[in-house]
Amino acid sequence: MAKAKKLFLLREKRETWRVRIDNKLRYGMCPDCQEEVRWLTCAGAAKELGLREREVFRLAEKAEIHFAESEDGRLLICSNFRK
């Protein structure tokens, strides 16, 4: 009887991430607050709220936080956060 051989396959996955840090402060009128507010990026809001960015997107989808979209399509969060 032939002896069984063990075969191990190793697959390596490489990913490249491009990170762009935008330190510009954005101020503008929040249509929900009707106040002049500082607009935060999703990452900035996540840091201030102590959440992950994905959770910030979910809050925006549920309209539980004030948000707007920039000209270039980015999600901007009102610094007053919650309604």
Describe the structure.
The chain contains two helices and four strands. Helices cover 20% and strands 30% of the residues. With 83 residues, it is α+β, with helices and mostly antiparallel strands. Strands 1-2-4-3 form a four-stranded antiparallel sheet.
Put the structure in a nutshell.
The chain is an alpha+beta fold and 83 residues long. It has two helices and four strands, in the order ββααββ.
Largest sheet: 4 strands, antiparallel
Fraction in helix: 10-25%
Q: Report the sheet-strand fraction.
A: 25-35%
Q: Assign an overall shape.
A: elongated
Low-confidence stretches: none
Order of helices and strands: EEHHEE
Counting helices, strands and paired strands, the structural category is: alpha+beta
Which oligomerization state do the chains in this entry correspond to? single chain
DSSP E strands, number: 4
Specify the number of helices: 2
Radius of gyration, in angstroms, nearest whole number: 22 Å
Strand order within the widest beta sheet: 1-2-4-3
Average pLDDT works out at 82
Summarize this structure as a short list of keywords or feature phrases.
83 residues, alpha+beta, elongated
Please give the structural blueprint.
Blueprint: E1 26-30, E2 35-41, H1 42-49, H2 53-61, E3 65-69, E4 75-82
Antiparallel strand pairs: 1-2, 2-4, 3-4
